[in-house]
Design a protein that fits this description.
The complex is a heterodimer of chains A (542) and B (419). With 542 residues, chain A is α/β, with parallel strands linked by helices. Chain A has three domains: 40-253, Rossmann fold (3-Layer(aba) Sandwich); 258-375, no CATH class; 383-538, no CATH class. Chain A has helices spanning 15-19, 22-29, 36-39, 54-60, 65-75, 95-106, 121-132, 152-172, 207-221, 258-266, 272-287, 293-308, 320-338, 343-355, 357-362, 383-397, 403-406, 415-424, 427-440, 447-468, 473-481, 486-497, 521-531, 535-538, and strands spanning 85-89, 110-114, 191-196, 226-232, 249-253, 444-446, 501-506, 513-517. In chain A, helix 16 (383-397) packs across helix 23 and helix 20 packs antiparallel against helix 21 (473-481). The model of chain B has no long low-confidence stretch (mean pLDDT 88). Chain B starts with 5 loop residues before the first helix and ends with a helix. The longest helix of chain B is centred in the N-terminal third of the chain and has 17 residues, at 122-138. Chain B has 21 helices and seven strands. The chains are: A alpha/beta (542), B alpha/beta (419). At the A-B interface, helix 5, helix 8, helix 9, strand 5 and helix 19 of A face helix 1, helix 5, helix 6, helix 14 and helix 16 of B. Chain A: Residues 275-328 form the ORC5 lid domain. Chain A: Pfam families: AAA_16 (PF13191), ORC5_C (PF14630), ORC5_lid (PF21639). Chain A: This is Origin of replication complex subunit 5. Chain A: One of its GO terms (biological process) is DNA replication initiation.
């Protein structure tokens, strides 16, 4: 299936659909509209298409053989009850895909619901019931659920009803179904409920009642035909509740080891020899940072392109000499991308660095030089929004008492004096202050202070721009003169919703809302540079 | 089902036994002074003598409170057909008064073949309940109210409990209220007006003793001789099993299992796992199966998570530990980074990464639940400034570093120095 194996395929397609092979997705989803009534049968609860053999299953998940066999044993022979099972392990260790593929192998009916897509109890309940009742939302039913169900008590009643009718219908056609395709027959009369991403339920409003409910569901329903499988990223001990719950049986998925990772990355490679020599170089250093496949594959994709760059023929088998050459070509980029987190900002980096290739090769010591090109901010913002952001940053960093002296008519010229005064303080005091700053983070400020600073710095900027580029002054003057236009407030609210500035609780004394800027100093400096605004002049250093 | 081999059939039989509480706990109904006989006496006396009663079943989870109750109710329903109707409520589902009364009305309607109206108000439902209690009392029918997770019904005004127990003060009604809770102080949670109407009968369910455990295992795992299995297979299986049960090694395994949790539920999960490990080729259980079952039951999630950590994540953990030893009252990502940098400056480690990479490792640690935020407030703050704490002990971290595959020597050194 190669969803997690091959780095080329984007990971977050819907998990369930990515597991059924593409040719089979079509009949399930597209043709539904035409023959929706006839085709909703029990068959819909199993994977369509040819069933995969155990060997195929094991081969598609390198390094997971013991886990797969253990799970197969847990699910047991046909029609045997299952104690509630809890699969846990770090992110991207193949929990969900293995269990789904396993049901494809066993062709037993199951119901899958992820607590991420079903983000509140009502949606979770209704999604389970919809699947159980073989109900599909479409135009004819106005995209409504089969049953409206908000309360847990209703859910349990409806679930019991739906399950017993389903189990009865499964008993009615044991083993061999009258279906035309032998591939789509339903095996057994057990129905499995799979709850994925259970750890997010802890953050829900009613988690204190929903979690025990889910864990106790098996005992509440008392139906041996029901199998419950929970999948979570965190272990059972992080699910706390007042009076506890019936503990499910734990199955642990460890993170992949370095050898497993190599096997996984080697899957579906066009030129295995080449990729293997590439992995020799990158896998070990990257494994010191993270062993998550999703992160590694995004990091490896551009690196491998880089690695192949000097090669004319991608199908060629590299010899020792070639490998050495490729290694020296790649080396500067490894340490670069080790210190990068997202691939999004890494990709634009590649282009300029490709141009700079020659210079880079000359002085590889100055590797970090490529970062200079990242200086401009990579999104668009209006000038006044930028000023607003800078003033918010200043308001958060500077103590309010210094505003008057920093932003007086001289435009912060006595800043230097202030600085010297600061350095006269004893070192110890300075250190505790610094510690405090590290702990407290940016301070909060009322709206009035933000607007005052905004007006000050735009007037200064106007003054500056008058010197440099007079044609631009008109725009700025407009901004500052009619200063508190609703425009500015609008900008502020959009900055808030973009999470550059956060709205905190109101101050108990004044009763007004307080704001806080969340941008880092680097970001503020970048913005200031794009405006040619002398930010450092206004920044109070302790 | 004839084509299944005997081992597979045996597996299915054993698995269904384990997941059927009535089979497991029928074991406890043999002795005369068990909770089973006490409970049966209480309920049957109120059925035959037409009186009201109330009782609390208390005990830790997985000790068979509900299972024993179900066995009792089933037998009584057989002995006195059409004399008893059972209303089952669960605190997790019906802790809201309105919802609970509606559910009672629904189940009563279902039982007595009446029309149930979804639109009925709280008042209608409580009137209906009272009149049903009177009618049933006149017809000498007993209504048994089973309140599972009883402690959750005591939240709020306890209006449901009050109205139920108050209705039982009249001579016309004939009902039993059975509360089931894993809180041993459940009766202390009752309000005064409710408590005075409660009979204060309590039955305590305790985990089985060591001998009982041993016999329970026998009761569950010995295959029945009158099943469809071939006789020689059953005989061989049972002989082999008795051999294992007498083995000292096996007794040791059961002891270690009961050391952490000796409830029946725990034991059942253990047996389930052992059956899953059964070798299908030989078709018999072995001590090895029980051993591996024990291993899969005894999980140490924090150590497992530590083993999964990357080297960078270990660095961050060690930094946090160092800060903790320095007795800084609060620490957040920034102070960790400062410590990380100072470690790098003193020891010139090869693992020094950019701040955003460390931040991502920090987030991984949060996800792994090895560290957590001090408080739930301050959602407006970005993660870097929110105070965090380690949720593993020094000992665990030490052990985790030792068992880690590629932990750098410098971290061991730093940890030893702290210790």
């Amino acid at each position: 299936m190669g969803k997690e194996e091959s780095p080329q395929i984007s990971r977050r397609t819907t998990r369930l659909s990515s597991c059924s092979t593409p040719s089979l997705k079509a009949p399930v989803e597209a043709s539904k509209a035409t023959n929706k009534l006839q085709s909703s049968s029990v068959d819909d609860l199993v994977f369509h298409g040819e069933c995969i053999s155990l060997d195929e299953l094991i081969n598609s998940f390198p390094g997971r053989q013991t886990k797969i066999l253990e799970l197969i044993n847990l699910l047991g022979p046909l029609d045997s009850p299952l104690v509630p099972t809890f699969l846990y392990g770090g992110a991207s260790t193949g929990k969900t895909s293995i269990i789904l593929q396993m049901f494809k192998h066993l062709t037993r009916p199951f119901i899958y619901s992820s607590c991420i897509t079903c983000y509140n109890p009502r949606i979770l309940f209704e999604s389970i019931l919809n699947q159980l009742l073989l109900h599909r939302k479409n135009e004819s039913n106005g995209y409504l659920s089969a049953k409206r169900c908000e309360k847990p008590s209703d859910f349990v009643n409806l679930l019991r009803e739906a399950l017993s009718t389903l189990v009865d219908s499964l008993k009615g056609n044991p083993g061999k179904l009258s279906s035309k395709k032998s591939s789509s027959q339903v095996n057994g009369r057990m129905v499995y409920l799979i709850f994925d991403n259970l750890e997010v339920v802890r953050e829900w409003d009613k988690s204190f009642s929903i979690l025990p409910l889910l864990f106790n569901l098996y005992d509440i329903l008392k139906m041996p035909e029901l199998g419950l499988i929970f999948i979570s990223r965190t272990s059972l001990d992080t699910f706390q509740s007042d009076t506890g719950y019936v503990e499910p049986f734990p199955v642990y998925f460890p993170d992949y080891t370095e050898d497993d990772l190599r096997l996984i990355f080697m899957k579906n490679q066009a030129n295995p020899k080449l990729y293997s020599s590439f992995l020799d170089l990158v896998l070990r250093p990257f494994c010191r940072i993270t062993r998550r496949i999703d992160e590694l594959s995004t990091a490896f994709l551009p690196l491998f392109k880089k690695y192949c760059e000097p090669l004319g023929d991608l199908g060629a088998v590299p010899n020792e000499d070639m490998k050495r050459k490729l290694f020296s070509h790649l080396q500067p980029f490894i340490s670069l991308s080790l210190n990068e987190t997202s691939s999004v900002s890494f990709q634009p980096l590649l282009k300029p660095s490709a141009n700079k290739d020659r210079t880079l090769r000359k002085n590889t010591t100055k590797k970090l030089g490529a970062f200079e090109t990242l200086d401009e901010i990579d999104f668009h913002m209006s000038t006044s929004a930028k000023y607003l952001l800078i003033s918010a940053f200043l308001a958060s960093r500077n103590p309010a008492t210094l505003d008057a002296s920093l932003f007086d008519s001289t435009g912060g010229s006595d800043n230097r004096k202030r600085k010297r005064k600061g350095s006269e303080r004893s070192m110890e005091q300075k250190e505790t202050k610094e510690q405090e700053l590290l702990m407290k983070g940016p301070g909060t400020f009322p709206l009035e202070r933000l607007l005052a600073i905004f007006q000050c710095i735009t007037s200064v900027a106007e003054y500056l721009h008058d010197d440099e580029e007079p044609q631009n002054a008109g725009l700025e003057a407009e901004g500052s003169a009619s200063g508190l236009m609703s425009d500015i407030l609008l900008q502020l609210s959009s900055l808030c919703s973009a999470n550059f500035i956060t709205k905190g609780g109101s101050c108990p004394l004044e009763g007004s809302t307080r704001y806080r800027s969340t941008i880092s100093e680097d970001m503020a400096l970048k913005i200031a540079r794009s405006l040619k605004f002398p930010l450092s002049k206004y920044l109070y250093r302790r | 089902m004839g084509r299944l081999n005997p081992a597979e059939q045996a597996k299915i039989i054993l698995r269904s036994r384990i997941s059927s509480p009535s089979f497991v706990f029928s074991f406890f109904s043999q002795s005369p002074d068990s909770n089973y006989s006490k409970l049966k006496y209480i309920i049957s006396s109120s059925v035959t003598e037409a009186c009201n009663n109330s009782v609390l079943l208390l005990g830790p989870r997985g000790c068979g409170k509900v299972a024993v109750l179900e066995i009792v109710l089933e037998e009584l329903l057989k002995e006195h057909p059409d004399m008893i109707s059972v209303i089952r409520l669960n605190g997790l589902l019906h802790c809201d008064n309105n919802c609970a009364l509606k559910e009672i009305a629904r189940q009563l309607c279902l039982e007595h073949h009446l029309m149930f109206s979804k639109m009925a108000s709280y008042d209608d439902n409580s009137q209906f309940l009272l009149s049903m209690l009177r009618e049933c009392g006149l017809a000498h029918k007993t209504i048994v109210f089973v309140l599972d997770e009883f402690d959750l019904f005591t939240q709020g005004k306890q209006r449901l409990l009050y109205s139920l127990l108050d209705a039982m003060q009249s001579i016309t009604s004939q009902a039993v209220v059975v509360g089931v809770s894993c809180r041993l102080d459940a009766d202390q949670l009752l309000e005064k007006r409710v408590r005075s109407r409660f009979s204060h009968r309590k039955l305590l369910f305790l985990p089985p003793s060591r001998e009982d455990c041993q016999r329970l295992v026998e009761h569950i795992l010995l295959l029945p001789t009158d099943s469809s299995l071939p006789n020689d297979y059953t005989a061989a299986f049972n002989a082999k099993l008795l051999n294992i049960l007498a083995d000292e090694k096996f007794k040791g395994i059961i002891d270690t299992l009961c050391y952490s949790d000796s409830s029946v539920g725990h034991l059942l999960r253990f047996l389930f796992s052992a059956i899953c490990h059964m070798d299908m080729n030989s078709g018999f259980l072995s001590v090895k199966n029980f051993k591996s079952a024990l291993r899969s039951m005894q999980r140490q999630p924090k150590l497992e998570a530590l083993k999964d950590c990357s080297v960078l994540e270990l660095y961050i953990l060690v930094c946090m530990k160092r800060l903790e030893v320095k007795e800084l009252e609060l620490c957040n990502f920034n102070s960790i980074m400062k410590e990380y940098k100072s470690i790098h400056d003193t020891f010139q480690t090869s693992d020094y990464y950019a701040r955003n990479v460390c931040l991502r490792a920090f987030e991984h640690l949060l996800e792994r639940a090895l560290i957590s935020f001090e408080d739930n407030k301050g959602h407006g703050q970005s993660a870097e400034f929110r105070p965090v704490k380690l949720v593993i002990s020094w000992h665990e971290l030490h052990q985790g570093l030792k068992s880690h595959r590629s932990c750098p020597a410098i971290l061991h050194k730093l940890m030893d120095r702290e210790g």
